[in-house]
Write a structure and sequence with these properties.
Elements lengths: L2 H6 L10 H15 L6 E12 L2 E13 L4 E5 L6 H8 L7 E6 L2 E2 L5 H11 E4 L11 H11 L5 H11 L15 H13 L5 E5 L7 H18 L2 E5 L3 H4 L4 E6 L2 E5 L5 H6 L3
Helix pairs in contact: 5-6, 5-7, 6-7, 7-8
The chain binds adenosine-5'-diphosphate (ADP) and magnesium ion (MG).
Length: 272
């Protein structure tokens, strides 16, 4: 009896070879030989601004690969280029040199309109100063990006997202009728309502008191986990940064990986 016949014969207990098992084996081998594509692969980014005739060198060969689903903190002194780096990742600014691939696509080579489409589909942004539209209610602020994208269920999805950030009871309030922490919750809901693969957060707790900042930190990590979003967080707050999988520091226009800090608890756990 030939091998093919023996594999299909019901009396034989050898594992059945199906298309799925062949595909699975192929995927397993591919995963071993090709590491997964990073969500962001930024290489040798250079950026300068020119004010009058004076150039300001901001990024000078910054490189960073970010794996999908991870959390990455970017730290560095004021003026070191953290916001500029996020603007490059969002396609809102263009580098003078270097490349950024987003899910394998070189965003430097995309037109302004296609970069806007990329943001609409795949990127959410949270700012320090919330940037909500003052004349719209919380619900309308959250629904607006979906409505602009022509999503039929915009209001239902916005309600669901307001619930996730714990602010459904304030859905009809305008930003001026909300506290800073509540406004940031609305801004987070707006940034995540289209379920982006990447959330960029630029000092999201910078304008908040300690207690409110703590609840926004918890919310960001909870939602990041729930929605499996990749988080790139700019912050001065090391307690916030060290909750991320990786912490990088912008120094002289380059990104330096910071080794994980061993906390007091970890030290205590090490035998003397
Ligand atoms: N649009 C701009 N035009 C000119 N200079 C700018 C502009 N945006 C930022 N800069 C300058 O670039 C440097 C980096 O800015 P930024 O990325 O905002 O730093 P950070 O977010 O780390 O504080 C600063 O010196 C800032 O003044
Ligand atoms: Mg900044």
């Amino acid at each position: 009896m030939n091998a093919a016949l023996s594999l299909t014969h019901s009396s034989i207990s050898a594992p059945r070879i199906t298309l799925e098992t062949v595909n699975q084996s192929y995927c397993d081998v591919t995963a071993m030989t090709h590491p997964p594509q990073p969500l962001i692969d930024a290489q040798n980014l250079c950026l300068q601004y020119v004010v009058g005739d004076k150039p300001i060198m901001v990024l000078q060969g910054a490189s960073l690969r970010i794996a999908s689903g991870t959390t990455v903190a970017i730290t560095g002194p004021s003026g070191s280029g953290k916001t500029s780096l996020l603007l490059l990742f969002a396609g809102l600014e263009q580098a003078d040199a270097g490349n950024i691939a987003f899910e394998g696509v070189d965003i430097g080579g995309l037109s302004r309109d296609v970069r806007a489409d990329l943001r609409r589909d795949s990127i959410g942004i949270v700012f320090q100063s919330f940037h909500l539209l003052p004349s719209l209610t919380a619900l309308d602020n959250v629904a607006l990006p979906l409505q602009m994208a022509g999503v039929a269920q915009a209001r239902e999805l916005a309600i669901d997202m307001l619930q996730k950030v714990g602010l459904l009871a304030r859905a009809t309030h305008r930003p001026s009728q909300l506290s800073g922490g509540e406004q940031q919750r609305v801004a987070i809901a707006r940034a995540l309502v289209h379920r982006p693969s990447l959330l960029l957060a630029d000092e999201p707790t910078g304008n908040l008191d300690d207690k409110t900042a703590g609840s926004i930190r918890d919310l960001l990590f909870r939602l990041n986990h729930e929605l499996n979003t990749t988080l790139v967080l700019v912050t001065h707050d090391m307690a916030f940064a060290t909750r991320c999988d990786r912490v990088l520091r912008l120094h002289n226009g380059q990104l330096l990986e910071t080794p994980p800090v061993i906390g007091v608890e970890d030290n205590d756990a090490v035998p003397a």
